[in-house]
Specification:
CATH superfamily of the largest domain: Metal-dependent hydrolases
Bound molecules: zinc ion
Mean pLDDT: 96
Strand order of the largest sheet: 7-6-5-4-3-2-1-8
Distance between the termini: 21 Å
Shape: globular
Largest sheet: 8 strands, mixed
Radius of gyration: 20 Å
Number of helices: 11
CATH class of the largest domain: Alpha Beta
Order of helices and strands: EHEHEEHHHHHEHHEHEEH
Number of strands: 8
CATH architecture of the largest domain: Alpha-Beta Barrel
Number of domains: 2
Low-confidence stretches: none
Length: about 280
Amino acid sequence: MSFIDLHSHTTASDGTYTPAELVLHAKKQNLSALAITDHDTLGGLPEALIQGEKSGVEVVNGVEISTAWKNSSLHILGYLFDPNHPSLLTTLDWMVEQRQVRNQKLVENLQNLGIKITYEMVRDEAGEDIVARPHFAKVLLALGVVDTLDQAFDDYLSHQGKAYVHKVRMTPEKAIKAIRDAGGVPVLAHPQQYINEGEDLHEILETIVPLGLEGIEVWYPSHSEEMTQQFLFHARLHKLISTGGSDFHGANKPDIQLGTGYGDLRVEESVLHELKERAGLL
Ligand SMILES: [Zn+2]
Ligand SMILES: [Zn+2]
């Protein structure tokens, strides 16, 4: 039997393998299909699809969108959408714009506090990465404004910090709608994470299933056997597809292997078949 992996990150977001390298790695791991699910971007898909055709690995269009839920961030995976659909692209562009506006405002707030920081310094610090608060922390440390990265967060960048800028966040509703409008299937990623953060999974599902959620990520490296059973129960209760994946990030999560997670993860091909049925592709 062949296995698949429906959750992976490339250098287009916070993974360390390029899209082509990741597909070749999937081939080496004997996976028949691989979904590329970078955070809030479809940037890795074209390269992965080309390499998939060359290598005989089925590359599945995917994305993982961060959305706001109380004190947590719900990650909504999307599969098998049309990657050129305008409403999905507009939604993802909106997120990039919001992030830029926020970063610029953060620079302004720091300057108003008398700190000689510029956006270019933070941009340079980030290099190829998307500019985020850890880059601000490093610049503040380099400027001698703080003695440690933790202090940069405590004094300036965290919720209680003097320069904090409120984040305008994507709603689950908007993300689910964008994925469905583009013909895709929205799936709630790694549910255990929200339980660990003190959220009520039942309440989450009661709220977002009516918005059009169609699946839940049941098989995931950190899910125990007992949790997996619990999520299978939720899937049946809400008539959701059960999906799974390793959430592979390369060297950024070195204990996680593509396809197998901590070694015992197995996602069967039949899961992709079900997703295709939901997407109306079969
Ligand atoms: Zn996630
Ligand atoms: Zn992920």
